[in-house]
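User: Hi! I'm working on a homework problem where we have to compare a predicted structure to a textbook description. Could you give me the structure for the chain below?
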Amino acid sequence: MIHDVQDRAIEDVSWLAIRHPAVMRLLERELASSDGDALAAGLELASRVLGGRTPLGDLRLDHNTLNTGMVTVRSGRCDRAMVRSLRDQIEELRVALTPREQDAVATVIAALIWAVLDASSRALDDTLVA
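Assistant: Happy to help. Predicted C-alpha cells:
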C-alpha cells in the first residue's frame, strides 16, 4: 500500500515536471527551503489542480501567465472562498508548515488556479472566434 502511494506520487511529480516545467520552476522559486515541506505541499496541491480527475487537455502554462497570476493574487484580487479552501487543504496535508510557509503555498496555488482559469478563458475565446 505504501509503495502504491509513493509510486503514484512519483508519477504525479514526473508528469508535472514534463507537462508543466514553468509550474515546477515557480514552485521551486517560491517554496524551496531547507526542509522541503512547503515545496512538497505545493507539489501535492499543484498535482491536484493540474492533474486530478479532469486533466486540462492540451493546456500549457507559461512563465508570463504564472507571473501575472502571482501579481494578481499578491495584490488581493482573488476569491476569498478559494483561499479559505486552499488553506483547509493545506491543513489536511501530512506536512508541518509554519504560518509563513502556509501563506506561501496558498499564494502559489491560488496563482496557479488563476493562471489555469486565465489560460482556459483565452483558449475558449480563440475557439469561439475561429
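For your comparison, note the following. The mean pLDDT is 83. DSSP finds six helices and no strands in the chain. Good luck with the assignment!
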